[in-house]
Amino acid sequence: MSYIQLALIALVQGITEWLPISSSAHVLLAADFFGAKGRDELLINAVSNLGTLAAMLIYFRKDVASAVIGGFELVAAPVTKAPLSSGARLALCIVVATPFALGMVLVSEKLLPEGVQEVLRGNYVVAGATIFFGALLWWADSSGSRTRKEEDMTLMHAFIIGAMQAVAAIIPGTSRSGITMTAARALGYERTEAARISMLIGAPIMAAAGLYGAYGLMSAEAAGEGMLTLADGMIVAGIAFVSGLASIWMLMSLLERMSFLPFVIYRFILGAVLLAMSPLMFG
Q: CA-to-CA distance for 139 and 142, rounded, in angstroms?
């Protein structure tokens, strides 16, 4: 695979990762077009997560810094007995949101046979998930007033939003950001707050996926396996970072002025394209 092909796949991943339109569906299209299959496709996706995660951490650096400081406050809370600050509450919500989703991801990686995982990455499943969860986002976004903010988030809300990441990890086309934003909107959060909460809660899973991808690249390179090298991975992560930062800025700007409907329509079109690409559509 050439550097131009890698760069284009990383660009697609970076642009789509934080948008509620399923980065996995787009990477599937791009990877299939360039001939990346199986493990190499998964590693490209995973390593790109490091770049898009870095973009999110920089864009929401104030929230991230507040949560990190709040994490230390959480550790000391049993001793100090002091009321939790907003940063500590955010850190606690992120902690509560992570274990179930991470556990389900690990279980699916270990227990799902490779054949089943291959089927789940097929056009029909990805297309169906893209359309179905797009419709679910449409429902959640249009079902009445949504006024809650991040400071209104309860631990139960955090758990529900975080748990939705498990669905996206198992079923490509769901969109991790899309389903968590859907859950946040359904629970009553403003559009920009739903997007911000989705990204902050998703950070640990993104970090785990990115580190897994980096480890996989180093292991494959050491064993002389696969098409990708560690240098390729650094290029992918770097491009995903730049495009991811631009994508976050665009998303947050758009949600201040409009609904999720354009993303829903795009998902329907993407799902139709994926279905049309299947040989079975032509008998």
A: 5
Structure tokens at 170: 């198992």
Concatenated DSSP letters for 54-119? Answer: HHHHHHTHHHHHHHHHHHHHHHHHHHH-PPPPHHHHHHHHHHHHSHHHHHHHHHHHHHS-HHHHHH
In whole angstroms, what is the distance from residue 278 CA to residue 274 CA?
Answer: 7
| Residue range 133-146: mean pLDDT, rounded | 91
176-234: per-residue pLDDT in tens? Answer: 999 999 999 999 999 999 999 999 999 998 888 778 777 776 676 555 555 566 677 78
Cα distances (Å, whole numbers) of residue 8 to 103, 143, 184, 203, 240: 32, 37, 31, 24, 10
pTM of the model: 0.88
In the predicted model, is pLDDT for residue 38 greater than 60? no
**179-182: long-range contacts, CB 8 A cutoff, minimum separation 24:** 179/133, 179/136, 181/20, 181/137, 181/260, 182/20, 182/133, 182/136, 182/137, 182/140, 182/141
Among 77, 103, 80, residue whose Cα is nearest residue 92: 77
Q: What is the DSSP string of 152-183?
A: G--HHHHHHHHHHHHHHHHSTTS-HHHHHHHH
Give pLDDT tens digits for 68-89: 999 999 999 888 888 889 999 9
Q: Burial, 254: exposed, middle or buried (Cβ in 10 Å; 0-12, 13-18, 19+)?
A: middle
Burial label, 253 (beta-carbon count in 10 A; 0-12, 13-18, 19+) = exposed
CA-wise closest residue to 53 among 230, 208, 226: 208
